Amino acid sequence: MGGGALKDGGRLPALSAPQFVGRDGELDTLGSALERTPAVVLIDGEAGIGKTRLLREFLASQAERGRRALVGACLELRVPYTLGAVVDAVRDGVDNVVGLRLSGLGGALRPLFPEWADDLPPAPEALEDAAAARHRLFRAFVEVLDRLDVALLALEDVHWADEATLEFLQFLVSRRPQPVSLVLTFRRDEVPSASLLLRLASRLPSDAHLVRLTPGPLDVAETASFVSSMLDGGYVSNEFAAFLHARTEGVPLAVEESLRLMHDRADLIRQDGGWARRRLDRIEVPPTIRDAMLERVQRLHPDSRTVLYAAAVLSGPADFVTLRAVTGLPEERFAAQAAEVLGNGLLREARPGQWSFRHSLACDAVYDAISTGERRAMHLRAGRTLERWPLPPVAQLARHFRLAGVSEAACRYTDEAADLCVQSGDMATSALLLHSLVATVPLPAGILVRLVTKIQFQALSGSDPYSAIIEALRSALTGQALAPMGQASVRFQVGRVLMVAGEIEAGRREILTALPDLSPGSPETARARVLLALPLGNARPVSEHLRWLQEAPPLTQSMASLDRLRLSVERAFALLMLGEEAGWAAAREIPDDVLDPREASIVAIGHTNVGEEATRWGRYDEASARLAKARILAERHQLVDYLDSIASSRAHLDWFTGAWSGLAERTARLVDDDNGVRLKDRCEAALVAGLLQAAAGDREAAKERLRFAGGDDQQRIAAALAQVCLRDGDVDEALRLTDQLAEIVVGGGLWSRAVEFAPARVAALVAAGRLGPAADVVNALEGALGDRDAAAPQASLILCRAILAEADGRIADAATLFFRAAAAWEALPRPYDALLARESSARCLLVEGRDEAGLSLLSAVAQALSELGAHNDADRIGRFLAGRGGDVVAVARGRGRPGYGNQLSPRELEVVRLLANGLTNRQIADVLVVSAQTIASQVKSAMRKMDVSSRTALAVRVVESGLVGELNQRTSSDE
Q1: Cα–Cα nearest to 784, from 738, 825, 745
Q2: Rounded to an integer, what distance in angstroms lies between the CA atom of residue 251 and that of residue 287?
């Protein structure tokens, strides 16, 4: 089934491997960079662009100069192997372990190199601190590199690297002197947003020598040379080269695969002494590598396809014995067909005796083409084969038996692999292993509950890791005959996961149904009552939630230590949410640091939750300290996906404390990442983003963000939306937004949720002329709050009294109360709310006829609001002051920059002139060499100042006003 036929019945010559074309500049750059050792070289490029070929050609030149390099590759696996690429690189580089004369540190390598057990030093004493154990392991690897006299460590496809590998790379580049030079290849578009690879590239030590390479596609001439090298140096017509370049965009792998397919189909002909394509108007080269690969595969003998299918199932490099076992072919048939796929270039020798696909795209294409039944059978054969290895690879076995649908073996190996990951501090991989099994393999209810309990959802990336688990649990409920206690246990897990996913009311219903049949005094029963005590969703009166907490079974020594820790942390969180001072004593029992990674995940979440509650209580120093502790734990134990929750809570705290610099960008990163960030964290970030946009004056964008955030913190969202509606004069909508929650949040005594809500509700009632109900809200909040040491709610209460006093005509009292509220906010500190309260106080002074004091205070407030970044509020006050008829000092738009009040700045004039000439925001940005986002902001600012609502109206207004002509008379410096 080899080469295609020529028109005269002859055979086309066999295709050669392509020569190295079009990369001389990159080779020179690599050589120059690595002359200055040690260096860090990052090679970034799309799939098939030639990163591997560039690296191999460079390494060959280094070998000729006697410089030793180790090479490893990260494989595309749903659950990557811990330090897999580094282990493979070292294993391939060591011929004689004994000859390395390793110190006692070498014993730390035993778990990763069991085949060297007889030659390595004894295993060192176990360390309880996972971070310390990893540090020791990394030092052992550095010693091996030193003994081998390695100058360069090259790792390919680092976008697929596990967290431990990335942490090891960080360890290497942070050591002084740096032990070896590094060359890392990766695809930027496949690097997760929270990956340590981004931190590695952006936070190198100041003295590190960093070089970035981004190989581009071949041009038409280079494509012609590339193709010619595969056709024994024959001339390639310009038309043919241009055709191939257009269809492949010059990506070398796509060019090669397309040419091989055309060769197989006999679509190549010799013409005028060179190579061209047959039937110029009819040839259809597949537009993607996948299509090209699949068509080539379909042309093979069925047994040859089976060999390729087996290689795709194994995914990584495999020896012939394993490959044959997975095919299920007799030895003689396997040998013949393996020779064909190797001869056709469909497989390559990745390292001596190990064969794999030349590129992951080809592997993916072939794997997807395998029928479901054959795929399961091959995974089963792979599992049975790997089980017979002297040291079975448990993570690979977990994958193969899971995809084969063999639940017992899949559970056993997944459990073992997940526990090994936890021991090494790799919580993310542990959670992914468990999640993959539960989501894809039907399991007995008892095993299912045990595994779901072990999943650390916070360690899983993606916005929805919950649905598949909930579906698996519900399938067990409906499809298995369970005793009442077994049903209750499964149903409790359904409810718990629903609540973690944010579906609070649905989760509560499941837990309430399960509770009567749960084992009395069990951790499940205790946790069920603690979860019911949390005032989330449609919160009930505080007394109801407290009753659930009081009825929870006490913590006992008979409980597992992990259960006790989890329950104590969740109990402290519930008490603080319910406004109980006892919650702070319980929170102080949460340890600052733990050694076990599973405990670390619980404690990190606990500190994050306590930090959130400290923010609500107005204890901002406590909140900052708790979030810092959570972050340290998450980073130390590589709980990477916990960092988004911590970041969203930190963003909310920064909003309150006025640390707005860069806050919009931070929240946008969280909100816009719908693949890597949990929905709850995106919602909290969207709330902060919406508040920032409202303060900047972009109320429609603010409403959109706030509505997106509405699924999370209902009280805060309702308050924020109601305030925006009140500023727009929509009193009815503000009332509607706050009606449903008013009785529960205020009437039910849930004062910790009333800090933002109560002033918004009171303001809406006052605007509607309903002073009696407004007074009821104030009195209810005062009664629930009492004299608790909660600075933020106490400041909120003073503000509510001020709003009511102003509406009641008690202007002097209102001025004093607003001033007191401002002082209370400032003490937290909470500058934005303090300034808005001062503005209200100043307006009361003006009503009283104290113009000088009121105007002076308003001017100072406007200046401070602008410096904070609340330009909409600053402009509003500026317009009011201008309306009083006096000279108004221009409000500065940011620290140290000139202000223009309601006048267009020079840059805004320049933008408007270009806009009036018909340019788009992108075109204006290109002219002025700024971002399109900056231009959009300046257009909005100009529209606000000119009191128009569209770009067309803005262009007409400035032309009619003659403002565009001013551009030549005024400075062109940016504002």
Answers
A1: 745
A2: 12
